[in-house]
Amino acid sequence: MKPRQPPKARAPREGANSTRYESLEDVSGSPGGPLLANQAEVFFEVEMETGTKPGASAPSELRCKECGSVYPLDARYACEECFGPLEVAYDHSGLDPAESRRRIQAGSHGIWRYADFLPFAERPPATRTALEPGLTPLVRADRLADRLDIGELWIKNDAANPTHSFKDRVVAVAIAKARELGFDTVACASTGNLANAVAAHAAAAGLRSYVFVPADLEEQKLLGTAVYGTTLVGVRGSYDDVNRLCTELCESRPWAFVNVNLRPYYAEGSKTLAFETIEQLGWKLPDRIVCPIASGSLFTRLGRGIRDWLDFGLVEGELPAFNGAQAAGCSPVAEAFANGWDACQPQRPATIAKSLAIGNPADGPYALELARATGGAIDSVDDDEIRAGIRLLAETTGIFTETAGGVTIAVLAKLAERGGIDRSERVVAYITGEGLKTLDAVRDDFALQTIAPTADAFAAEVEGRDLAAATAR
Questions:
Q1: Are residues 340 and 388 located together in one domain of the fold?
Q2: Where residue 391 sits, what CATH number does that domain have?
Q3: 336 domain residue, yes or no
Q4: Among 63, 95, 290, 409, which one is most buried in terms of CB atoms within 10 A?
């Protein structure tokens, strides 16, 4: 399918439009140690090297993942022959692994250090912006590992991106491609984190933006989107309803919907998480990856990124075991894995992990393939386990994650408890968003001990209580 393309004569718009929040009727018809491992400051203003990419791979075409049909590198997302998803294919004939590694290490302090492996024939134009995502901390989590009896555990904290989630990576790539193709308006369907990222990156690029979200999204994510001057549209329905609406609008509006008609390019941004993990581990591979699954795109692109570097000769070894994490209230991929199905049955989401609440995941079948091919698994956890996962990570690492990260840590704990992780394994778990975005999930755990301003009151009411609790244990 080839959605509407941008007008050729229209120049990019400077500035973003003022914020509006609109509510649409329910479209379904119903009511409704390593490199930067411990470094927190990872965003710098840099001048990027532009021009051709010698000694690198270059995008050659869009290719259907199902039937192999090929298409030009324009704004489209589905095969006209079989309606399968399209992905970017690369020409690797010019690749020089040694030169590529040198260019990475001499590159920017963010995802554009991996531009040779992203869908651009030339490096994107030089910018001076603090919004380049990437090189987020990879933290060795020894206290959490001890709690779970895991030999070696690393936490990739991707909440340390400009809008505090991994979505900055995919949006940065999609915005660069939108500008390359001549679009002046970008849009998205989102469960929250993507909304924040699209609004912010569009504002920085001077592009008009429209962000479509379920109307019952967390307030923190709504506020964190509207502040950038986007047109924020609340749809009375689930994310899947929002996505269907955006797919329909994509056919009639000359806009770049980052996760619809630009999805083949957008998805490539997630590969940079795999590239960083390898580089931050000293050009070594983990033995096991634990990652949340919503649409399945992040999960599968981590696999694609690692496979690419194995094929290119930049790293040696085998694909890690891939373990996916879903919330029980929206777990179509986990359900399919448990039942031995090759496809997912759509579900109506009902979970506190709204950023993972995609009932009909586009990349679900490919996530199933990856987990099974690597000896991994896909598990789900309930809302109480999600809250416990958030607390466990915070108490042992000082990292406060949103609900999606609580899902990841809860599944990691479940995997360790059933003996699914050998103590010799190097495990990397991915935290994809900041806890301040989902405060309601932990509100009931909040306790403020109020006392008079005296030492006696502190001793009696705080220390005394702590002593009594310790004695009871």
A1: yes
A2: 3.40.50.1100
A3: yes
A4: 409
Q: In what order do the strands lie in the sheet with 256-257?
A: 20-24, 231-235, 208-214, 185-189, 256-257
Judgement on whether residues 344 and 205 belong to the same structural domain of the protein: no
Q: Give CA 285 to chain center in angstroms.
A: 20
Structural domain contains residue 292: yes
Q: 206 and 320, same structural domain?
A: no
Q: What element of type H or E holds 24?
A: strand 20-24
State how many domains the chain has. 2
Residues found in the chain: 473
Exposure class string for 240-256: b at 16+ Cβ within 10 A, else e: bbbbbbbbebbeebbbb
The SS3 assignment for 109 reads coil
Whether residues 244 and 186 share a domain: the answer is: yes
Phi, psi (rounded to 5 degrees) for 379 = -120, 165
422: in domain: yes
CA pair distance 44, 322, nearest whole angstrom: 32
Look up tokens 């994510």; give the residue: 221
Q: How far is residue 427's CA from residue 429's CA, in Å, rounded to a whole number?
A: 7
The last residue of a domain, from among 251, 266, 281: 266
In this structure, the answer to whether residues 104 and 239 fall within a common structural domain is yes
DSSP 210-223: EEEEETT--HHHHH
Per-residue pLDDT of the chain (473 residues; tens, 9 = 90+): 556 666 554 443 344 334 433 444 333 333 334 444 443 333 333 344 455 555 557 899 999 999 999 999 999 999 999 999 999 999 988 788 999 999 999 999 999 999 999 999 887 765 545 589 999 999 999 999 999 999 999 999 999 999 999 999 999 999 999 999 999 999 999 999 999 999 999 999 999 999 999 999 989 999 999 999 999 999 999 999 999 999 999 999 999 999 999 999 999 999 999 999 999 999 999 999 999 999 999 999 999 999 999 999 999 999 999 999 999 999 999 999 999 999 999 999 999 999 999 999 999 999 999 999 999 999 999 999 999 999 999 999 999 999 999 999 999 999 999 999 999 999 999 999 999 999 999 988 888 889 999 999 999 989 888 777 666 66
Residue 154 lies in a domain: yes
* Domain extent for 65: 20-132+166-266
Please tell me whether the overall predicted TM-score, pTM, comes out greater than 0.90 for this model: no
Name the one residue in this structure whose structure tokens are 């001076």.
Answer: 128
Same domain, 258 and 302: no
